[in-house]
Amino acid sequence: MTGLVLKLSPKERVLINGAVIENGDRRSRLAIMNPEANILRLRDALHPEDAKNPGKTSLVSFATGCSRGESKPDEVYLSWVRQIEEIRQVSVTVTVGLVYGRRAGYWNPHSEFKS
Question: Which residues of 63-89 are buried (b: 16+ CB within 10 A; e: fewer)?
Answer without folding.
Answer: bebbbebeeeeeebeeebeebeeeeee
